Amino acid sequence: MSNDEPENEAEASGTGADAAVSSSSSPQGSVSPAHVGRRTRISAFWIALVVSLVVLVLLIVFVLENGRDARVSYFGAHADLPLGVALLLGAVIGGLVVALAGAARILQLRARARRLRRDVQATQ
User: Fold this and answer.
1) Reduced to 3 states, what is the DSSP secondary structure of residue 48?
2) CA nearest neighbour of 66 among 80, 52, 86, 94
3) In the chain, what are the domain boundaries?
């Protein structure tokens, strides 16, 4: 008899006390069917990581394919950059401007909410 085969009929059918303990200690035994396909923070992290790596590869290909030099001037400063790098730099700077504007708006809304909370507490 091999180690993988059940020693008795109760163990083979899964009705013995050992089967109840082993099924409740298994990962699937304590999880209801509704939670089996549920996303977790870790799974969301891995999905975001994979998507980020794909975007990074696409950006690298973009920069490498657009290697022709372009003259860039900004407030009197002049530089010759590869076209892909210049466009990527412009996109990053644009993203930073949007992030700063969003952060300013969030701070503004938090201050307003704090003021409203103080006003409500003062009237009570």
Assistant:
1) helix
2) 86
3) 1-38, 40-123
Q: What confidence tens digit (pLDDT) does each residue in 51-88 have?
A: 999 999 998 898 888 889 989 888 988 989 898 888 88
Q: Please answer whether residues 65 and 84 qualify as being in contact, where contact means their C-beta atoms are separated by less than 8 angstroms.
A: yes
Give the CA dihedral 85, 87, 89, 94, nearest 10 degrees: -170
pTM of the model: 0.53
User: For 14, left (φ over 0), alpha (ψ -120 to 50), or beta?
Assistant: left
Element (H, E) at 24: helix 17-25
Q: Residue 27 and residue 17: Cα distance in Å, rounded? A: 18
CA-nearest of 61, 59, 65 to 82 is 65
Q: 98 near 106, Cβ under 8 Å?
A: no
Question: Quick one: pLDDT at residue 113?
Answer: 95
